[in-house]
Amino acid sequence: SRGLGDVYKRQVFQATQQACDMLEAAGFTRLSEQAAWNIVPGGRYFVTRNRSAVVAFVVPENGLTHCQIVASHGDSPTFKLKAHAEGEAADAYIRLNVERYGGMIMSTWLDRPLSAAGRIIVSENGKLVSKLVNLDRTTLVIPSVAIHMDRTANGGHAWNIQQDLLPLYGTADDSLSFMDAVAAAAQVAPENILGHDLYLYSRIEGTLWGERHEFISSARLDDLQCAFAAFRGFTAGKREKHI
To answer: Left (φ > 0), alpha (ψ -120 to 50) or beta: where does 48 sit?
Structure first.
């Protein structure tokens, strides 16, 4: 299995792709919802939808008595970038407009090294193509203010995303726009990007800690650890009499 180093980078699209890669390496056959399926006894198969979900199943060789199903989600609370995200602040800085995705403890996103990952939709030879992308470097921070600028900081706070939690990207005189940076990471022309599903993620790597390393801390454990456990249980199971 992989270590913790890459867990913090995994958005749901990247996690789904990694699961597909691991299934193919284990001998599973990829199916398509746009084609007829030829399912045979002893076969191992998987299919994806929207590049954000994967369904895998195994058919017993000598008949079956029932089905057993395990399911888990791989997405996590985060901030999603809006369609036209860049905006100026104080005529000096560029901030990105975001919306909340899921329920998070908002204060934990402050003053962390952040970046963005997900997918983009591009025009390629007259077709719409989905491409995974990750700005694999620290590019964003949601800054807090000093205590003398907010004397109530330690007394609880009602966060307003549009006022308090927009990530800082750069200065207003930067020549490289955020979408230009995304295009460069995906190796496509900026003008060919037609849409995106991009999310913030923390750049703080996962770690084991405690006297005996009995504890684990990492971003996105809710819910990648359940997806990983379900995946390992599925691939290790004997499945002698059930789908």
So the answer is: beta
Q: Which two tokens stand for residue 54?
A: 């994967």
Distances from the Cα of 43 to the Cα of 62, 235, 236, angstroms: 11, 13, 15
The pLDDT, as a whole number, for residue 3 is 46
| Local confidence band at 65 (pLDDT 50, 70, 90 cut-offs) | confident
pTM of the model: 0.88
- Between CA 134 and CA 17 the distance in angstroms is 13
Task: For 197, list phi and psi in degrees, rounded to 5.
Answer: -125, 90
End-to-end Cα separation, the chain, in angstroms: 25
Q: Which amino acid is at 89?
A: A
Rounded to whole angstroms, the Cα distance separating 189 from 186 reads 9
Residues whose CB is less than 8 angstroms from the CB of residue 126 and which lie 6 or more positions away in sequence, other chains included: none
